[in-house]
Amino acid sequence: MCGFAGYINQANVNKDTIKSMADRIKHRGPDDEAFFQDENASMGFRRLSIIDLAHGRQPMMNSAETKVLTFNGEIYNYKQVREELKELGYEFRTDVDSEVLIHGYDAWGPELLKKLRGMFAFVIYDKEKQEVFGARDHFGIKPLYYYYDDDKTFLWGSEIKSFLEHPNFVKEFNEELLPIHLSFEFIPSKETMFKNVYKLLPGTYFIHKNGKTETHTYFKFNYDHIDESQTIEEDSKKIRKIVSDSVDAHMIADVEVGSFLSSGIDSSYVLAEAAKLKPIQSFSLGFRNSKYSELSYSTEFAKEINQKNTPLYMDGDDYFDILPTIMYYMDEPLSNPSAMQLFYLSKGTRKNVKVALSGEGADEFFGGYNTYLEAFTFERYQKMVPSFIRKGLAKAVSGLPRFHGRRFLMRGAQPLSERYYRVNYVFNQQERDQILRNPALNVDSGAYTQHIFDEVKGKDEMTQMQYFDINTWLPFDILHKADRMSMANSLEVRTPLVDREVAKFAATMPIKTRIHKEETKVSLRRAAEAELPERVAKKEKLGFPSPIANWIKEDKYRKRIEAAFNSDIAKKFFKPEALMHILEEHVNGKSSMQKIFTIYTFILWYGVFFPEDTNTNTIDLVKRTQV
After folding, report:
1. Do residues 255 and 354 lie in contact, with contact meaning Cβ atoms separated by under 8 Å?
2. For residues 478 and 338, is the Cβ–Cβ distance under 8 A?
3. 623: which residues sit within 8 A by CB, 6+ positions away?
4. Phi/psi at 546 (nearest 5 deg)?
5. Model pLDDT, residue 527
6. How many Å apart are CA 488 and CA 478, to the nearest integer?
7. Is pLDDT at 541 greater than 60 in this prediction?
8. DSSP code for 333
9. Torsion on CA atoms 324, 325, 326, 327, rounded to nearest 10
């Protein structure tokens, strides 16, 4: 696990720039640093040593010294790929997975990507062709960004903040995306909140040559091979084998591996499988003096499987004090309230181990979100009631006062692409009109993601929902915060349930083995029941609960938010009186936590990355982690 940065050389760029860029992301790799430079390109690397600790320094070259690699991640099947390469005549000098990538690309070019099982982002500079190749793993577990400015400047790196050190990086806020962020709390595309900075999307690679950048897709998750003959009993047995194999593959390391543990099924299942292989320490986070803490569940479960559990704690001061720091490490504004818990969980875990397993991905691949249940109700409604009647009913009730069933009738007239995600919008279009200083910016954010639903047009609604989440929520929120919050603390987090082989099987499951009646991820639960106590396997999904909604009502935290809502940043983009109205409503009993938090974290983020454009001191509040 590491971090890297690089750029195509320009005459006016000092050769020490690459070191400054790598130092900016030192938290991703505090164990070592190294650099490569020639007349055309510069590459920098920070290493967090996990496998073959004494060897494997990067940037790494192939045998002919014509290609140069920087790599972040882990290739779990690297030993098998290495054997294929040995048969082709390649010789290996180390036992690191990095060497498989440099030789594999030499042998197969981009076709190498189809052979890999792991989490990865890597860049290879070909000295002979004078081209740069960059690739990202199948599901976007590891990050890769690039900056491309009208054929003038090309930069790449693990985190956007490394670009700040390059003299030709033009830092500009991508204001057109603000309404999209206010809708989703992230940007569900390759675009970012910085102009000309792009995410390399999951399952894609880029080639940069002669001042031009092209991107290509090598993998796309799909539901083209659903097997309706499968049963819950059969699928649960297959899941047990697949999860067991995946956890085993994710345990490979030359350092101690630990595991995150909440009270839910996903992390408990992962821990139980890991504990079969070797003793493993788990780590759980709770809140001091709070009803939201679930540490008792985690501690009890760890005892039941005879593994050590380490409880960690945080309170409201911890939460609000760290927010500017979180926005710095996040690169882009992300208002998921659980990010702060994940930061402190990672911080405490890193004091004990260097690698931790986690349970992300189960809900997306196996059908774990309660919102998926509504698909059955709406599909029945649409079959029983003609479209023109549904639209007429929706129009008729839209002007009426709220009553039980009104929302259902209004949503029942909408296509899934509007109904599904728009119900989870932080701010809908009308609400954005009320708060934006420049309402001309407001757009139909549903159109921004319509193409994703179009890709699974004709599939049942639940399948479309899962597909949407796998392509948006999972990479741009869940995995994004998992990478940033762990790597901010120099901790490698591995996700055995976000895995090529796990996903391959999940893509074949029919609805009846994903959700049964009112039970979500039913086959996964049946598999877990064979490994876990029944109370854990059947526990209702709670997410990562926190008392933030109540904290916002406390004077000392509310005053921080009020100050932000009346700051020069707020006045630049929003109508402060509209923001204060939302806050007042929340204090008076109308829950608006996510709206408040989305605006508040955006203001903090803007103050961290654009301090020259503000009178606030947000950047001064950032606490760089000690590595």
Report:
1. yes
2. no
3. 322, 325
4. -150, 160
5. 96
6. 16
7. no
8. -
9. 50
Q: What is the DSSP letter of 310?
A: E
* Dist. CA 162–CA 159, nearest whole Å: 6
pLDDT bucket at 579, cuts 50 / 70 / 90: very high
Round to whole Å and give the CA distance between 335 and 599.
8
CA 95 to chain centre: 29
Tokens encoding 273:
């499988």
Do 574 and 436 form a contact (C-beta atoms < 8 A)?
yes
CA–CA dist 163, 24 (Å, integer): 9
Single-letter amino acid code for the residue at 279: P
400 against 167, higher pLDDT: 167
Q: What is the mean pLDDT of residues 307-319?
A: 94
Report the alpha-carbon distance of residue 447 to residue 575 in Å, rounded. 25
Secondary structure (DSSP) of 6-20? EEE--TTS-TTHHHH
- Beta-bridge partner residues of 75: 118
Peptide bond into 59 cis (omega under 30): yes
Residues 6+ apart with CB under 8 A from 371: 420, 423, 424, 465
Interatomic CA distance for residues 242 and 230, integer angstroms = 16
Give whole-number Cα distances, 385 to 390, 392, 412, in Å: 6, 11, 10
Could you write out the three-class secondary structure of 585-600?
Answer: HHHCCCCCHHHHHHHH
**Angle at alpha carbon of residue 366, lines to 457 and 265, rounded to 5°:** 155
CA-nearest of 136, 120, 121, 124 to 75 is 120
Element (H, E) at 154: strand 153-157
Tell me what the mean pLDDT of segment 49-63 comes to: 81
Other CB atoms within 10 Å distance of the CB of residue 575:
15
pLDDT at 423 over 80: no
Q: List C-alpha distances in Å: 245 to 242, 318, 357, 463.
A: 5, 38, 14, 26
State the Cα–Cα distance between residues 627 and 279, nearest whole angstrom: 27
Burial bucket for residue 105 (CB in 10 Å: 0-12, 13-18, 19+): buried
Token pair 């938290």 is found at: 27
In the numeric block, which tokens belong to residue 366?
Answer: 């196996």
- Name the average pLDDT for the chain: 92
CB contact set of 538 (below 8 Å; sequence gap of 6+): 525, 529
Phi-psi region of 196 (alpha: psi -120 to 50; beta: other; left: phi over 0): left
Two tokens at 375? 């698909």
- Written as six digits, the tokens of 129 are 């062709």
Integer Cα distance of 251 and 356 in angstroms = 9
| φ, ψ at 493 (rounded to 5°) | -105, 130
Instruction: Give the confidence band of 78 by pLDDT, cuts at 50, 70, 90.
Output: very high
3-state DSSP assignment of residue 531: coil
| C-alpha span between 346 and 348 (Å, rounded) | 5
C-alpha span between 514 and 366 (Å, rounded): 6
Q: pLDDT at position 626, please?
A: 60
Give me the count of residues in the chain.
627
Tokens encoding 532: 């876990």
**Contact 326/333 with Cβ under 8 angstroms?**
no
Q: What amino acid positions are annotated as catalytic residues?
A: 2
